[in-house]
Write a structure and sequence with these properties.
Helices cover about 35% and strands about 20% of the residues. With about 190 residues, it is an alpha/beta fold. The chain folds into two domains: about 1-135, 3-Layer(aba) Sandwich (Rossmann fold), CATH 3.40.50; about 150-190, no CATH class. A five-stranded parallel β-sheet has the order 3-2-1-4-5, with helices on both faces. Strands 6-7 form a two-stranded antiparallel sheet. Helix 2 (about 25-40) crosses helix 3 (about 60-75).
Length: about 190
């Protein structure tokens, strides 16, 4: 056991700063951060809430932040080992505080949301000031499920070699051939 501890001491932890705004979207940002942490040995997560207005006490904010993060960490704990997590509450401008904490802990990555309570543009300002790689979590647009049935049939019948029916192939003529591998065989998509 002593040897394992010595081995871990020589491995630098992968540090992730996670900007949490305590909105309903926080769960998605936390999940993305934990997904990134699971990809690294000995991850260290720093969850940060930035209070711009100063209307609540630090204890209240710590409690809210803990409530948002703790359930996800309990699930993460079932699948990961040797991780650390810390909660941070700071006052000021979110973009400055997130980048500042990342610099303070020598973070390898920042994870922030593109949405939520904070004003638009904060994610862009974090990207501008970030001292490390930054993952901006956005909400995907709704999928257009009104696919032409003939196109679906062509795609299925051709094993993905042809994507569009004769009526739509001109509309999608700008689609360039892309290499695809399936079952050990290469093909070009048209």
């Amino acid at each position: 056991m002593h040897l394992f501890g010595a081995m871990n001491a020589s491995i630098r932890r992968y540090r992730i700063v996670v900007g949490v705004d305590l909105t309903e979207y926080s769960t998605i940002v936390i999940e993305h951060a934990l997904d990134q942490a699971a990809r690294h040995q000995l991850p260290e997560l720093h969850f940060l809430y930035v209070d711009e207005r100063g209307k609540r006490t630090t204890d209240q904010l710590n409690e809210y932040l803990s409530g948002a993060v703790y359930p996800a960490l309990q699930v993460f704990n079932q699948h990961a080992a040797d991780w650390r997590a810390r909660l941070h509450v700071r006052r000021g401008k979110p973009d400055q505080q997130i980048a500042g904490l990342a610099a303070d802990v020598i973070a390898d990555m920042i994870v922030v949301g593109q949405f939520g309570l904070h004003k638009r543009g904060i994610a862009n300002r974090v990207l501008t000031n970030a001292p490390c790689a930054t993952l901006v979590v956005g909400m995907p647009p709704a999928l257009d499920m009104s696919q032409c049935h003939a196109c679906e049939a062509f795609r299925e019948d051709s094993g993905g070699d042809r994507w569009f029916c004769d009526d739509h192939v001109v509309k999608h003529a700008h689609v360039s051939p892309v290499s695809s591998w399936s079952g050990g065989q290469g093909s070009y998509l048209r």
